[in-house]
């Protein structure tokens, strides 16, 4: 099952990579420079790290039939928070304490925003789109409040390690992504959380009648999403050594939703595919790279994204499938249709 | 307008109006310049395009949907207008073409939403990407406008006593009046309310649900295009990044104006007051000087929270009356779902 | 009657949904100035027939004639134009619109291209006064009670001078006074020559108001009778599908649980358990090792009671004791932790999680008890799933198959397994055997008996009385949200007796 779900995203990714190969024969080459692995593939992984992180959080949110529009703002807030902390420690490049304090506070703030969203949705019962919209609007204001409206440049050296550092020849951000992915996979596969998320997303009423406290599940999922966004915010701000309350993480929520949808998770909730999401995020990142290398105007990527979103959603829509299969009129009747018993359909 | 009796539905609008009056008088009290009526007129001049967009958005939200594409449609409209003018076409041809951009996109989005049962949120998100992408495809750079008619529209001041408004304000006011008429005195308008109240009921009452939904997005697209044109008069340029994030402001204005995000309840007037309120916040913060611009966003966020909380209370109260029957509908709803 | 031509004649109506014949060769005749009740249990095809008549579904076969003219109804709107209006059970109006709009929307009175509100207000008041209703028509619908909303819905259909008025469960959320008010209105309409189709689960109401009854069962036409010539007992037997003569055949009663049941400890006890509008004060004593049956027609309160005992709904008043301890069940989880399990009759909406596998559906409840971190190892899960797949004969016998790909009967077995795995002390089964084949039915009954022998209690809700009598040691009969009698199954009672209790009143 999972195999077939991953098949098409993988094919698309492969095609994109091949197109790059045509334009740049050295695309797959990975060199060792200064003891670091370098090359386009590594670059895609490195650049794609924040998006993959956010998409992982978004996957779980969408699996519960929700959506988190606030992640872009959380990115900005988290970066701003970290920059604010390390900014006051200019001279202390040697000491690592500010680094850890910055990380802890930034992540704490992100988790708090997730908690906020989760409370609004699970306890007060506001629709996810609406509840997270508040943070989407106000979050950027808060981020700018923290940075004082300026684009804060970060001179504190150790901070750049998060997004730009290398560990065992690979960019450090790749390790972060790998770690979060492993945690997410572990929690959803080796504990019952994955099952609970899928059941809450698939049929909230039946889940409640099976004794699952769906409110807590929903709360957790939004906290996790906030956390992921916070980490992504650290990576992004570290990458560019600055915090920009206005533009950091702009449109990331949309890219993340796109990645989730490409990865095969339905916006209607239920079954989710973390690996699919990761591939979806990589597709988006590779698409960006491809458009650069093919030499098309970078902004046109929006056009491509729009078309991809629409196609994927149409393919997921039962009405669309019905109409298409009606066109080809090869009525593929599956045995399950026959098996539906009388009362089921009344 | 004897229909507008004070009832539950009007409470949010009244609160908005009172908040607006309070804020405005706070401004007048605090800054001597604020007392000039021109400040009030400027609210309209600076926000006329937002008023037009908010009107279209109100229709969409009343029907229970959402339109995230409006900001991008403004950018695309400005870009289409600017580039066609650059190509030497006359404004008489350019303006109708520019005004077609939004309705066509809105119509297509409405079709996707109705025929394939896709969520409005995701479809208009794609529309948003699409429109921005398209405007960048036309040009990445700002295209400035030198056309006489556009300049005329931009610079004409219509005097009111010792003060003035702009042509765009006139357009906005006309749009609002037409929208109020459409919402309350035409079948289409009432169908929008009905669908927002209960789509299933609307279907069973034999209302043209699909047609109305498609039309709603077309109308919103048209409003966005018209706003785009007004915005182009204002900026005298076309640019792919114009009106970035405007959809959020429009949604915020509609919500602050007392329209229920779940659909079915709200007034055009509320949305206009919502826009004016956002404008007042911006002016106040600008006048204050020591306060920075980002406070606007935080203030909007707080207002959103306040009004969404208020909606929740009202909806909850209504739900309590209704939930006695909701549980029994098992057989019936299954069949409808078919 | 014979000389008068029917205003509406449906003949040979067949409607097939993928894999299911929802209606098969059904006929229906309606005369003007009569109230015609359409009767049948859940799934009998009443709703489908109405929806075919009102154009919600296209029909596959058959003819519909209105005033002797063949018609093909295209849509609900078309039906209204033809003079066929429907008032649905769940009041299909828009709560956010004013009363006047709910009456007129879709057919607004226009003047000079705009809606003429004033004229519409006047017209609405006039229409409502015909129904003896004097209310402010400019207020929103939601500010009025369901009964008044019901009347407004009727006013809406009168506005098109309707010939045929369909009332689908109009009384299910009304109290006695409101029902009387509604009936007065219906009788007035009848006198005005309107043909009325009336659907209700309340037998008393059917006998009070209807002139004739058409009975459907499993999508088939069973018969048409004059109400006054059809004894209640006969009606119930026609609906449920057992001819009276058949009944005495299986008198062999396997369970005489009552003999020892009373001696065992009481597992669950309720006193005056009440929920307004769904359960009148209810006393119940459930012993360990007992199968307790709830009999009654749909809407009699049997499901509502089951939900209260499981904490799915909250009781307004009364006490509930589990093992002698007063317990407040605020959520299903609490009930589960107290050893109660509940298999809902509404499999699709309240039971299955369609997108996950059989195995995951099975372990859901037990995992809910164990919590997040005490995850049952996959190998153990497969073991459990395999065990129940073969125990309950689930097809396809592949625990990894997605739930949505299973037939209804197999889904039901998976849900049963979900609860059996939790090893509950009390298993509430709401129509567990509906729509599943005979073999599976027998298996489930066998399972119930073996659970009983292991000292479990079972609360068994079923409309198949034969089954209830065969399995249950004690049977409560419900009618109109009340327990009308409690019968100890001493081996001598039969279906006929219970049916009499269900029918109540004069036979």
Automatic annotation (TrEMBL), chain A:
Source organism of the structure: Salipaludibacillus neizhouensis
Organism taxonomic ancestry: Bacteria, Bacillati, Bacillota, Bacilli, Bacillales
MF annotations from Gene Ontology: transmembrane transporter activity
Name of protein: Sugar ABC transporter permease
Cellular localisation: Cell membrane
Top-level taxon of the source organism: Bacteria
GO CC, one annotated term: plasma membrane
Transmembrane segments: 6-30, 51-84, 96-116, 128-146, 166-187, 217-236, 248-265, 272-294, 300-317
Keyword entries, A-Z: Cell membrane, Membrane, Transmembrane, Transmembrane helix
Topological relation to the membrane, as annotated: Multi-pass membrane protein
InterPro entries: ABC_transp_permease
UniProtKB/TrEMBL annotation, chain B:
Localization annotation: Cell membrane
The keyword tRNA-binding is assigned to this record: no
TM region positions: 12-31, 43-62, 68-86, 93-116, 122-140, 160-183, 214-236, 248-281, 293-315
UniProt superkingdom: Bacteria
Assigned keywords, A-Z: Cell membrane, Membrane, Transmembrane, Transmembrane helix
Protein topology in the membrane: Multi-pass membrane protein
Keyword Cell membrane attributed: yes
GO molecular function, one term: transmembrane transporter activity
Pfam families: BPD_transp_2
Annotated GO CC locations: plasma membrane
PANTHER family: ABC TRANSPORTER PERMEASE PROTEIN YPHD-RELATED-RELATED (PTHR32196), INNER MEMBRANE ABC TRANSPORTER PERMEASE PROTEIN YJFF (PTHR32196:SF63)
NCBIfam families recorded: PRK11618.1
Name of protein: Sugar ABC transporter permease YjfF
Organism: Salipaludibacillus neizhouensis
Upper lineage: Bacteria, Bacillati, Bacillota, Bacilli, Bacillales
Automatic annotation (TrEMBL), chain C:
Pfam families in alphabetical order: ABC_tran
Residue ranges of every copy of the ABC transporter domain listed in the record: 8-243, 261-505
Subcellular location(s) per record: Cell membrane
GO CC annotations on file: plasma membrane
Keywords: ATP-binding, Cell membrane, Membrane, Nucleotide-binding, Repeat, Translocase, Transport
InterPro entries: AAA+_ATPase, ABC_carbohydrate_import_ATPase, ABC_transporter-like_ATP-bd, ABC_transporter-like_CS, P-loop_NTPase
Top-level taxon in the UniProt lineage: Bacteria
Membrane topology of the entry: Peripheral membrane protein
GO molecular function: ATP binding; ATP hydrolysis activity
Name of the protein in its database record: Sugar ABC transporter ATP-binding protein
């Amino acid at each position: 099952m999972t195999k077939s779900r991953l098949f098409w995203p993988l094919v698309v990714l492969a095609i994109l990579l091949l197109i790059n190969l045509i334009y740049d024969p050295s695309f797959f080459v990975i060199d060792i420079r200064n003891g670091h692995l370098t090359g386009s593939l590594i670059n895609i992984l490195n650049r794609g790290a924040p998006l993959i992180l956010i998409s992982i959080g978004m996957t779980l949110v969408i699996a519960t039939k929700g959506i988190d529009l606030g992640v872009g703002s959380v990115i900005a807030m988290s970066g701003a928070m970290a920059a604010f902390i390390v900014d006051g420690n200019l001279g202390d490049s040697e000491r690592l304490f500010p680094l850890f304090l910055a990380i802890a506070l930034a992540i704490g703030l992100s988790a708090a925003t997730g908690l906020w969203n989760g409370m609004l949705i699970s306890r007060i019962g506001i629709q996810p789109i609406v509840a997270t919209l508040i943070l989407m609007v106000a979050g950027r204001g808060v981020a700018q409040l923290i940075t004082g409206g300026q684009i804060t440049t970060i001179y504190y050296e150790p901070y750049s390690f998060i997004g730009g550092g290398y560990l065992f020849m690979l960019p450090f951000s790749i390790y972060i992504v790998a770690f979060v992915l492993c945690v997410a996979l572990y929690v959803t596969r080796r504990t019952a959380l994955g099952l609970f998320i899928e059941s809450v997303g698939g049929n909230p009423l039946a889940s409640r009648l099976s004794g699952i406290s769906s409110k807590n599940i929903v709360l957790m999922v939004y906290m996790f999403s906030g956390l992921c966004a916070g980490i992504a915010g650290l990576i992004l701000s570290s990458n560019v050594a600055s915090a920009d309350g206005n533009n950091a993480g702009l449109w990331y929520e949309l890219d993340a939703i796109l990645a989730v949808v490409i990865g095969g998770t339905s916006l209607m909730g239920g079954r989710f595919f973390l690996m699919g999401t990761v591939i979806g995020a990589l597709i988006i990142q590779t698409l960006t790279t491809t458009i650069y290398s093919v030499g098309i105007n970078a902004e046109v990527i929006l056009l491509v994204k729009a078309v991809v979103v629409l196609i994927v959603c149409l393919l997921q829509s039962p009405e669309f499938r019905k109409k298409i299969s009606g066109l080809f009129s090869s009525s593929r009747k599956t045995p399950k249709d026959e098996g539906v018993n009388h009362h089921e359909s009344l | 307008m004897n229909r507008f009796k004070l009832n539950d539905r009007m409470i949010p609008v009244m609160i908005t109006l009172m908040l607006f009056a309070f804020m405005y008088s706070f401004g007048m009290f605090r800054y001597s310049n604020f007392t000039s009526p021109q400040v009030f007129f400027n609210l309209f001049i600076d926000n006329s395009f937002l008023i037009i967009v908010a009107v279209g958005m109100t229709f969409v939200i009343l029907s229970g949907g959402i339109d995230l594409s409006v900001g991008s449609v403004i950018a695309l409209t400005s870009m289409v207008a600017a580039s066609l003018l650059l190509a030497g076409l006359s404004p008489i041809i350019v303006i109708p073409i520019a005004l077609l951009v939004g309705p066509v996109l809105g119509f297509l989005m409405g079709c996707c939403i109705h025929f394939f049962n896709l969520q409005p949120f995701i479809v208009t998100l794609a529309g948003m990407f699409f429109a921005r992408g398209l405007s960048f495809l036309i040009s990445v750079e700002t295209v400035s406008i030198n056309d006489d008619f556009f300049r005329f529209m931009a610079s004409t001041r219509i005097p009111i006593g010792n003060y003035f408004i702009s042509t765009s304000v006139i357009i906005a006011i006309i749009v609002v009046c037409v929208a109020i008429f459409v919402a309350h005195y035409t079948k289409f308008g009432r169908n929008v309310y009905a669908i927002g109240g209960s789509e299933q009921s609307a279907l069973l009452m034999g209302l043209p649900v699909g047609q109305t939904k498609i039309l709603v997005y077309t109308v919103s697209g048209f409003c966005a295009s018209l706003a785009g044109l007004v915005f182009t008069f204002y900026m005298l340029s076309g640019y792919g990044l114009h009106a970035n994030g405007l959809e959020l402001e429009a949604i915020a204005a509609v919500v602050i104006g007392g329209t229920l995000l779940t659909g079915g309840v709200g007034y055009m007037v509320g949305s206009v007051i919502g826009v004016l309120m956002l404008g007042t916040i911006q002016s106040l913060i600008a006048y204050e000087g020591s306060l920075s611009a980002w406070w606007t966003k935080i203030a909007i966020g707080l207002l959103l929270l306040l009004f969404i909380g208020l909606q929740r209370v009202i909806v909850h109260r209504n739900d309590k009356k209704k939930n006695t029957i909701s549980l029994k509908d098992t057989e019936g709803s299954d069949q409808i779902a078919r | 009657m014979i000389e008068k031509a029917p205003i509406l004649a449906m003949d040979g109506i067949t409607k097939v949904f993928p894999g299911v014949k929802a209606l098969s060769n059904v006929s229906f005749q309606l005369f003007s100035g009569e109230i015609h009740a359409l009767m049948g249990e859940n799934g009998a095809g009443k709703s489908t027939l109405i929806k075919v008549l009102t154009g919600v579904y296209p029909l596959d076969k058959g003819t519909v004639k209105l005033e002797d003219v063949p018609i093909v109804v295209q849509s609900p709107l078309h039906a209204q134009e033809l003079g066929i209006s429907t008032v649905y059970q769940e009041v299909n109006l828009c709560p956010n619109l004013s009363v006047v709009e709910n009456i007129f929307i879709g057919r607004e009175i226009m003047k000079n291209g705009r809606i003429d509100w004033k004229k519409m207000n006047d017209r609405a008041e006039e229409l409502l006064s015909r129904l003896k209703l004097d209310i402010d028509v400019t207020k929103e619908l939601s500010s009025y009670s369901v009964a008044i909303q019901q009347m407004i819905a009727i006013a809406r259909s009168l506005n098109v001078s309707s010939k045929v008025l369909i009332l689908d469960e109009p009384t299910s959320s009304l109290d006695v006074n409101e029902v009387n008010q509604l009936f007065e209105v219906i009788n007035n309409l009848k006198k005005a020559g309107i043909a009325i189709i009336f659907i209700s689960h309340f037998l008393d109401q059917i006998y009070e108001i209807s002139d004739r009854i058409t009975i459907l069962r499993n999508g088939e036409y069973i018969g048409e009778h004059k109400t006054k010539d059809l004894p209640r007992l006969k009606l119930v037997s026609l609906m449920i599908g057992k001819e009276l003569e058949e009944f005495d055949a299986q008198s062999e009663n396997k369970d005489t649980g009552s003999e020892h049941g009373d001696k065992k400890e009481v597992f669950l006890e309720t006193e005056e358990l009440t929920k307004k509008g769904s359960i009148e004060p209810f006393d119940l004593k459930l012993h360990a090792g007992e199968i307790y049956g709830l009999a009654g027609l749909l809407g009699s309160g049997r499901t509502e009671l089951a939900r209260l005992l499981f904490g799915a709904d909250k009781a307004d008043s009364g006490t509930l004791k589990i093992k002698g301890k007063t317990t407040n069940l605020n959520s299903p989880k609490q009930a589960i932790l107290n050893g109660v399990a509940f298999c809902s009759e509404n499999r699709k909406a309240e039971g299955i999680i369609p997108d996950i596998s059989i195995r995951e559906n099975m372990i859901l409840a037990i995992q809910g008890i164990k919590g997040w971190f005490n995850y049952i190892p996959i190998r153990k899960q497969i073991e459990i799933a395999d065990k129940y797949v073969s125990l309950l004969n689930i097809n396809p016998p592949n625990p990894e198959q997605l739930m949505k790909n299973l037939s209804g009967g197999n889904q039901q077995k998976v849900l049963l397994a979900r609860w059996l795995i939790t090893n509950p002390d009390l298993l509430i089964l709401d129509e567990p055997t509906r729509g599943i084949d005979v073999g599976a039915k027998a298996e489930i009954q066998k399972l119930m008996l073996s659970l009983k022998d292991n000292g479990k209690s079972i609360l068994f809700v079923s409309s198949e009385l034969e089954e209830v009598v065969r399995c249950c040691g004690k049977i409560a009969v419900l009618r109109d949200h009340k327990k009308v009698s409690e019968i100890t199954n001493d081996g001598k009672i039969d279906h006929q007796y219970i049916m009499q209790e269900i029918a109540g009143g004069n036979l």
